[in-house]
Structure formats: C-alpha cells, structure tokens
Design a protein that fits this description.
Blueprint: H1 3-15, H2 18-25, H3 29-43, E1 48-51, E2 54-57, H4 59-85, E3 91-97, H5 99-102, H6 106-116, E4 120-126, H7 129-137, E5 143-146, E6 155-169, E7 189-193, H8 199-210, E8 215-220, H9 224-233, E9 237-241, H10 242-245, E10 255-258, E11 265-273, H11 280-304, H12 308-315
Parallel strand pairs: 3-4, 3-5, 7-8, 7-9
Antiparallel strand pairs: 1-2, 5-11, 6-9, 6-10, 6-11
Length: 316
C-alpha cells in the first residue's frame, strides 16, 4: 500500500468524484482510477460504488478513509517535526479569514507575526464561510476561522470562541449609542443582511421569526464593508458580529446597540484539513489569530453583550 494511493482515496472520498479528485490531486483521471482499482484488488474489497451520478464509498471505503486520514496526518506531522529541527521558523501559511475579522482583528496579528517570524510568508484569502470551507477541504488553505455551518468532508473543527451579534444603525437615529434594544418592540426594520448561503443568516432569520421581529424590507449584501457604509449613511440597519463593529464603540461612525432579550450570538470555529498536520509556522499563526479572536470576543461580550446594559446604567 502506497501513501499516494491513500491520498487518492482521501481525495475521491471527499470529492465524491474521480474527475474532481484527479484535479485536486494534480493527476490524470485514468491514473487515479488505476491506483484506486489496484488498492481495491490488493485489499480484496470494493471501496467505492460508481454510478452515473457520482461515487459513493462502501462501508470498507468509509473505514479505510478514517484510517487513511490518520496515517496521512501522522506522516505530515513527521515531516513538520523534521522541518522544525532545522531551527529557524520559515515557510508559507495559507490562511482563510471572513470579512468579520478583516476590519480590525487581522491586522494586529499580521503585524506582530511578521516582526516575530520574518522568514514566514503569510497569504490570506478573504471569503465567506462556504468558500473557505471548500478551500480548506481541498488543501488550498491550511486553516480558516468561520461560523459553524454544514458539514464538509475533509475538514476537522475546533471551537474558538463565542461572539455577540449587535444591532447597528446610522449615527443620525434617536436611540442613544450603546443603548440595548429589544428588536421585537421596534418599528418595522429595514435590514441589510448576508444572503441565504451565509452561515450567520439562518440563525438571524430564526431569531427574527422566533421573537416576532417586524421587518419591513431586507436587502441582501454579501459584503461587510458595503453593509457598514450603507448603514452609516441611510435608514437601513443591520445585525453584525461584535468582532466586526467594535471599533465603533469609541468612535461611532455607526451606533451600536446590544441585543440582550435574548442575546443573539455567533460561534467561531477553526477548521483544518483532516488529513494534514500543520507546519510549525502554521501552528504559530493559528495560535496568534486564535488568541486575538478570543481577546476580541471577550471585549465584545463585556461591552456589547447582555452585561453591557448594566454598564450603560453605570455610565449614566
């Protein structure tokens, strides 16, 4: 049994297609199919059922996939250990970040990391969770931090922290900045929200329906910066993560309002390829970004979460 065959098996399992698996593995489809067939003959079992609609793993294929990912992850860890013995941390880290973190969370991490590890090249892809999940599963990204969403084969996940969602309005509204708001008691809202493919949108819709929040109109914007700009200059409002809008706490280009009854939260998870161990450089970058997000989430919960109501009273 060859490592190459295990890598091909993992690619076919996760892509559910020999064609897509061959593209991902940078191999010819015929060559990949031949290697899978050879593996099946060697083991004496069928690993995949082929049909005109795609590829489905058999029970033997499911079991071998689980073992193969552990073996490949261990091989990757060995390679990374050898690299670490060379002393100086170097290499390239491919990270995926949501727009939530691009405004104020990512830059401090990049600045610190570059000064501490000048020989590491960091490449950041900004996209929404569905795209980032696919990029991680394919191995094009080492890691990404996203809200939990649909399960994607080929990735493993770890909870990072919990953020609060915040009601955001123009600075020209009557409600005082940082005053908590009960959305169910508001006049019909005009909301700028992400599209249905966004992992946060489903939770927001559930909240609006569960607590009978009156909505006059929704505009779908899958761009955070345009959403912030629209809210700042119009009567459109939005519901946004604290990690995105906390810079407006002290310099309010927009008014921020905690949602305490009940709070609306968003979880962030770290996702990584299931069959790949992180390089020393990637491990260090993950630790930096994870710590920054946890620090920011704590700040947001303290200043924009349910506890913010008592803080506003103390200030008054």
């Amino acid at each position: 049994m060859k490592l190459r065959q295990l890598r091909f098996l993992v690619a076919v399992y996760e892509e559910r297609s020999f064609t897509a698996a061959a593209r991902r593995a940078h191999a010819t489809q015929s060559g990949l199919s031949m290697q899978i067939k050879d593996l099946e003959e060697r083991l004496g079992v069928r690993l995949f059922d082929r049909s005109s609609t795609g590829v489905t793993p058999t029970s033997a294929g499911e079991r071998l996939y689980q073992r193969a990912t552990r073996i490949l992850r261990e091989v990757s860890a060995i390679e990374n250990d050898v690299e670490a013995l060379e002393g100086e941390i170097s290499g390239t880290v491919h990270a995926g970040m949501m727009p939530t973190f691009a405004r104020a969370v990512l830059a401090p991490v990049l600045d610190r990391f570059d000064r501490q590890y000048p020989h590491v090249e960091v490449k950041v892809t900004e996209a929404y969770s569905a795209v980032l999940s696919e990029e991680v599963a394919s191995g094009r990204l080492d890691m990404a931090i996203v809200p939990p969403g649909r399960d994607v084969p080929g990735i493993r996940a770890e909870h990072v922290d919990t953020d609060v969602e915040v009601f955001v309005t123009s600075p020209n509204t009557d409600r005082p900045h940082l005053e908590p708001v009960d959305l169910s008691k508001c006049e019909p809202l005009k909301l700028a929200l992400p599209g249905p493919g966004n992992a946060r949108r489903e939770r927001i819709d559930q909240y609006l329906n569960t607590y009978n929040v009156s909505v006059e109109k929704i505009i779908e914007l899958d761009t955070m910066m345009a959403t912030l700009d629209l809210v700042a200059r119009s009567d459109w409002a939005s519901i946004l993560p604290g990690c995105l809008c906390f810079p407006d706490i002290d310099q309010p280009n927009r008014k921020l309002h905690p949602i305490p009854h009940p709070p609306l939260t968003v979880d962030y998870i770290l996702i990584e390829p299931v069959s790949q161990s992180q390089s020393p450089a990637a491990q260090l970058f993950i630790e930096e970004i994870r710590n920054q997000i946890r620090e920011t989430c704590t700040f947001c919960r303290d200043n924009l979460g349910p506890a913010a109501q008592s803080r506003v009273r103390k200030r008054a």
